[in-house]
Amino acid sequence: MAYHITLVTNTSNSSIAITNPAYEGDSMLVGPAPANNPGSGPGSNPYTPSRPILVNKISGNPSYADALPKANNIYTFADNYCFWDNTNSAVNGIGEKGTKIAYNASAGDLQITVQANGTLSFVRASASAAAST
């Protein structure tokens, strides 16, 4: 089974970029939270992809430089985060600045939130508890 991203919420004051080197159609620019962007239109936040975004598989824990061309990415004002399915019941990741991501749960649908400080949190699509970054 695989991990899929079904919703991305940006609560920060800045736009974010979502990219996937495996499938260009997954790339999207998501504006700041509507409260911080009064001119934003409906659907600009949260972002629901037209099809769930597959989290790419990478075995182990590569360096940021090694993960960048293969992993899913979310660029925030705070960092660029690469993250991937580690093939062992977890989503791992690393930011360009060295921040580690660890979300330990069996595969399934995920929601990602970009916090006001630019960090990421992961939850199951039907859950409400955040994972650590």
Describe what you observe in this structure.
The chain has 133 residues and is mainly β. The chain has one domain (4-124). 3% of the residues lie in helices and 36% in strands. It has one helix and ten strands; from the N terminus they run E-E-E-E-H-E-E-E-E-E-E. It has one helix at 64-67; strands at residues 4-10, 16-19, 28-30, 53-54, 72-75, 80-85, 90-95, 100-104, 109-114, 120-124. Strands 3-2-5-6-7-8 form a six-stranded antiparallel sheet, with no helix packed on it. Strand 9 and strand 10 (120-124) form a beta hairpin. Residues 127-132 have low confidence and may be disordered.
Total domains? 1
Number of strands: 10
- Which range does the strand content fall in? 35-45%
Give the distance, in angstroms, between the N- and C-terminal Cα atoms: 23 Å
Q: Give the low-pLDDT segments.
A: 127-132
Averaged pLDDT, please? 87
Largest sheet: 6 strands, antiparallel
Helix content: under 10%
